[in-house]
Amino acid sequence: MRVWSVIYNFFAVLFLFFMLVTLHNDIKANERLFQSLRLSAAVDYATEGAFLMSLETGDLGLSYQDMRNVIINPDNTLETFKYILALSYDMGISRETIRMLDNYITSAVLAVNDGYYIAELVEDDKENHDGSGGIYVLKWGLKKPYVIRYNGSGQEDPNGHRYVAYSLVSENWVYMEQSGNTLIQDSGDRFIQLIGKRGIFPSRERILAKANELISNDINFVIQERNKMYDRIGNRDFVYLPSSVTSSGINEVSRPSLLVTLAGVDFAGPEKLEAHSVGGFTIADKVRVIAFRENGQKYYAYEGQIPPNAPIVIDRFFNTIDEAALQGYHPHVRYLANPKRSR
Amino acid sequence: MDFVNKIVTVVLTFIMLVIAPITWEYVRSEMITERLVLNEMVQFLDKVTDKGTITAEDLDDLYLGVNSTGGTYDVEVKRYVRMSTLDEFGNPRTIYLSVPYEGETMNLGDIVKVTVDDVGRSPAKRLLWTLLRVDAGESRFSLSAMVR
After folding, report:
1. Which of A115, A258, B53, B57 has its CA at 20 to 30 Å from residue B68's CA atom?
2. CA distance A305 to A340
3. Is B81's CB within 8 Å of A337's CB?
4. Do A178 and A270 fall within a single domain?
């Protein structure tokens, strides 16, 4: 009898151990799932907001479908992304927070109609006033066009000497040819001109495929470099952009959009997480900033926020509040909370 | 010795058959609750950032949705307006100021932030505390989105 109860107890302890391990793994898996859901929601909202901030349009009221000639300015995009992410995780918006968040953004691409920007780490001399530099911040690089190279007979050739840069949505093109020491330059807004003048037959599918290929290659290169820098070995980050919508529902980049990938996120829970997000949305309208004086004080607010009978003197208009602040205008705390003019 | 063995057997049986399943179930349901709360927050943010206003009905909807998941949550909704000032070196510095949203139309670029704070003590937490004296701490999370 005693032997049997010892055997029973032994197995009971063993089973209890198994149960504990299973429970622990279950809790961990659930926690990870929840944190990654939360991170992806936060990153999606941040991407969406950042893309909205990049639109530098007048009062166009265009929908996403008609975004042919929308000007996109990458100035505030990354900052806005980081601000919203910081707010989602209850972090204060300080310069330190923003710089810390740089470490998690492995890459960001802002694809616009006629080219794309890719975020790179650059030395920011403004940070150190003694000129020593040494502080690296994430900034948008140069705009890179969607270029296809052709050879002399108008065939696509990766080593060709004729370059044509295309736009994603319109038929705008820029032609560049290097023959010896001379550079031939041409441009137009119809494909038919390109066919007639240069004997190159562009196709919409090929341009989209090339643009997606260029962005994929660049983004993966940047991700690899960044992972090397942060010793994230064995990182599974790999971004693939198809040239057309795949059966599994992956979209190609065919309109202005913003892509952000994050890796090694350790502020979002006990484990390191990764997140990817693509944004591209409807524009409503963008209103100007009015710089004015009230009781001799310089203030700024958006168009339509100032009550009609307010005792103010309007000085000038700005596109962004940063410009207004640089010119010495202060935020008008009361007016800035008012609705902008509804159209 | 035989007696001690019997006691151990009874205790182990009790742990395996009663305490372990209860703990497991409580912890699992708490995890599911957290995800439901997150869904409610996402729904609320999508709605108000699309409309541009936060009405009493929206807030009621959020409060009811969050609290019907089983826990006791404190929900806080804030609206932030982006402002730019100059710092001591003359560089522009961005600040977000919390402003009232009741009865106001929000603007493109404003940020709505929802914070959910688990103020209650869920069965899982109580059980873990009673049995093991482990306190998981309060769970609190936020989500913010920009008005479109």
Report:
1. B53
2. 5
3. yes
4. no
Å between B82 CA and nearest CA of chain A:
9
Structural domain includes residue A342: no
- Strand spans (E) along chain A: 105-112, 115-123, 136-140, 146-150, 162-166, 173-179, 182-188, 257-265, 273-279, 289-294, 297-302, 312-318, 330-331
Whether pLDDT at A266 is above 70: yes
CA distance B24 to A26: 9
Domain check: are A129 and A174 in the same one? no
> What is the chain A residue with the closest CA to B46?
A45
- Tell me the residue range of the domain where A173 lies: 145-248
| Top-confidence range, A67-76, A133-142, A247-256 | A133-142
3-state secondary structure (DSSP) of residue A315: strand
User: Is residue B134 within 8 Å of residue B104, measured between CB atoms?
Assistant: no
Q: What is the pTM of this model?
A: 0.74
Asked whether residue A331 is assigned to any structural domain, the reply reads yes
CB contact under 8 A, B9 and A8: yes
Co-location of A150 and A135 in the same domain: no
Please, are residues A315 and A297 in contact by the beta-carbon 8 Å criterion?
no
Which of A86-95, A221-230, A315-324 comes out lowest in average pLDDT? A221-230
Residues A47 and A181 reside in one and the same domain: no
Q: Is residue A76 part of a domain?
A: yes
**pLDDT at residue A60 in the model:** 41
DSSP classification of residue B145: E
Q: Residue A77: phi, psi to the nearest 5?
A: -60, -55
The answer to whether the beta carbons of residues A162 and A149 sit under 8 Å apart is yes
CB contact under 8 A, B96 and A37: no
Chosen domain end from A248, A264, A298: A248
Phi, psi of A115 (to 5 degrees): 165, -175
Pairing of the two strands A146-150 and A257-265: unpaired
Residues A162 and A127 in one domain: no
- What is the distance between the alpha carbons of residues A132 and A116, in angstroms, rounded to a whole number? 31
- How many domains does one find in chain A? 3
CA atoms within 13 A of residue A110's CA, in its CB half-sphere: 25
CB within 8 Å of chain B, chain A residues 217-236: none
Q: Are A132 and A19 contained in the same domain?
A: yes
Question: A residues 62-121 near B, CB within 8 Å?
Answer: 79-80, 83-84, 87-90, 93
Asked whether residue A134 falls in the same domain as residue A32, the answer is: yes
If we measure between CA atoms, which residue out of B104, B145, B86, B55 comes closest to residue A334? B104
